[in-house]
Amino acid sequence: MSIRQDGVAEAIRTEQARVTMLYDRLDLARRRAEQALGEVFGRGGAVANVQGRVEREVAAAEQWRRLAQLSGVERGLCFGRIDDADGVTTYIGRIGLRDDEHESVLIDWRAPAARPFYVATPGDPGTLVRRRHLHLRERTVIGLDDEVFDLERMSESDRRSLVGEAALMAALRRGRTGRMSDVVATIQTEQDRVIRSDLQGALVVQGGPGTGKTVAALHRAAYLLYAHRDTLERRGVLVVGPNTMFLRYIEQVLPALGETQVVMATVGELYPGVRAVAADPPAAAVVKGDARMAGVVAQAVRRRQRVPEGDLEIEVDGGVARVAHETCARVRDRARAVRLPHNMARKLFVTEMLRELARDLLVSLDDSLALENFLPAEAVAALEKELPGRQEPYTEQELAYEAERLWDLPEVRAALEALWPELTPQRLVSELLSSPETLAAVAGDLDWRAMVRPASAPWTVGDVPLLDEAAELLGEDDSASRVAARRAGEARREAELYAGEVLVSTGLAEEGVMVASALADRHDDDGAALTTADRAAADRTWAYGHVIVDEAQELSPMAWRVVMRRVPALSLTVVGDVAQTGSAAGARSWAEMLEPYLAGRWREERLLVNYRTPVEIMEVAADVLHAVDPLLEPPESVRRGGAAPLAVRGGPEQVPLLVEAERREIGEGRVGVVTSDAVHTRVAALVPGGDDLDAPVVVLTVTQCKGLEFDSVVVVDPEGILRQSARDLYVAVTRATRRLTVLCPDRLPEVLRRLKSTL
Ligand SMILES: Nc1ncnc2c1ncn2[C@@H]1O[C@H](COP(=O)(O)OP(=O)(O)OP(=O)(O)O)[C@@H](O)[C@H]1O
């Protein structure tokens, strides 16, 4: 064995000892959590009172959470080490761990002390002399990568043990698994800037395909939860993704970073109780996504606040209660003028109308009993002198009593309901979209015909912002819940005190994983355990502490209104690429989309290095990008040496053979077949696996493949994709990490001329 090999083996032994010790600490922490859980349940059925049961649930839920966190970080627990010029060595991992003396033995990657690991560069190493990456297979150290910043200051034995194949390149060469992995060991400096950017304000991250926008955004979520746990445990973090496929693709990243409490949703899922997956045809998507739709919905609500053509007349008690047309209009105007949401203002309208009806009935009654009916006019005049004030004959009580009696009559209710109905957002939007007549009346210049559809049609993603808008304008009659909220406020103060005690008694306070206020928040009145994520996802009016929007270029102006409502403090991370916009209602520029909400108050970071796609494929993609916009430049690939991208003659029937060949080429990795919308069903029928991300081969439309990647990509029907848009073709050809094949029945589209062709 050479001196160098000797040194490397020695270094691996040293690191193995450290890693073994760290896993021992992890096991110990797990055993403690399990034990604590056992003790909680050990208290068993003996807990008789509500408080005891609540305590048990709280404690159990927290220990489960702790266990989930500890299990999530098993893979690659420790991945880095830094040595500084003073001889201090620090190990960096997915979570922080301490020894029995409470000394830190592993630093959480998000802690300030771990920062040099990510930001040191040969040109600016700070105090570091070396950065080391540790590669583990399960709990065994199988390799090391060193970057030396100051050889002079390293000891002789350390110099002998230097090892080095760039960790990043090793990570990038790995076969894909169908799911996104974290990159905590190899975060690059420009990504680190994004990840650790301030919580406050809006950050826009613009970058071409494969520049690590998604991965950086998810690490940012984990970082913010770590650095601002107090705020974010209570308010929660929301990640908005373009479709459910994408959310499945990224769902394992945050748990692997020890975070299990982030809410993930598509725009179609942001309205509780509705789960919209269907997309609108492009023409409808454009109209529904137009910011002017907010005004359209508002008009639709106003149209439901009616006055009768003539006087309002309701048959009551064999007679007629009447309110003059002008009075109805005045009552409606007054109810509108209070500027409350429709369902709350309705209360005012109904109350006043009932009083008008009551007054009319009492007047009729009075009239029938009037003295004039029984006495001569002179006698009445004499009486009037003696009993002034006959103009105001009814007391408040009399009116109120009569109004209440009227409200119990179905015919009265029905008449008032017709004038100012209580509305749900679902009813309003459904009735609006299925009524050409209403649409024509309220849609102004918009091409409303594109939106018309039957009342029974399922909700589309484009409907969700309309429902949300309607919910804002309609509101809920929440007087009862406000009283309840006041009571809950008092109960809450007690709950917080109590939660503090629970944290101390379960040892969680010491570990700092939770704050008492957040714990108190998690439990509703009857003690059922609710995480912040559960509560936030179920509450339309929830104000998140931070919102991350990925593939943000796809959101329409109306969808942005929904997102902005979820984060009134405007603490946002907006991640995307305006060159990849697929939705006809999506963004062409960030300024255009965000200015209405952020008015200059946003900062932008650009990611310029493509970690996914090798140079050879990006050269093809660059031509497609120029067809999108000649001024746009693709990101620079960090890797060279992929196979030459190919064009092959054939249609959908060729796909199974081609896919088999690709599978042989890539071995363990994944093949993605990306098709035009037109041929998708045909191709999907030919290939087993469909859209299951865990299958070795998946078949997706361009919309579905957004944000995903595969070792080998087969693009089917490039002409059809190009007809959809050049942006779609750009997305399709930038999904590959190693191999790209384009299947084309005859002439290759001009933008793909660079492909090596067998046509
Ligand atoms: N620092 C890194 N270390 C290792 N791999 C990385 C790093 N940064 C990015 N990658 C890898 O590059 C690939 C692309 O990353 P990601 O999907 O986040 O890019 P993106 O900018 O969101 O792309 P798109 O615009 O196509 O959605 C992923 O496989 C990711 O793991």
TrEMBL record:
Limits of the UvrD-like helicase ATP-binding domain: 186-614
User: What are the record keywords, sorted?
Assistant: ATP-binding, Helicase, Hydrolase, Nucleotide-binding
From which domain of life does this come? Bacteria
Q: Sorted alphabetically, which InterPro entries does this protein's record hold?
A: DNA_helicase_UvrD/REP, P-loop_NTPase, UvrD-like_ATP-bd, UvrD-like_helicase_C
Q: Which residues bind ATP?
A: 207-214
List the SUPFAM superfamilies: P-loop containing nucleoside triphosphate hydrolases (SSF52540)
What is the designated name of this protein? HelD family protein
Organism annotation: Nonomuraea roseola
Upper lineage is:
Bacteria, Bacillati, Actinomycetota, Actinomycetes, Streptosporangiales
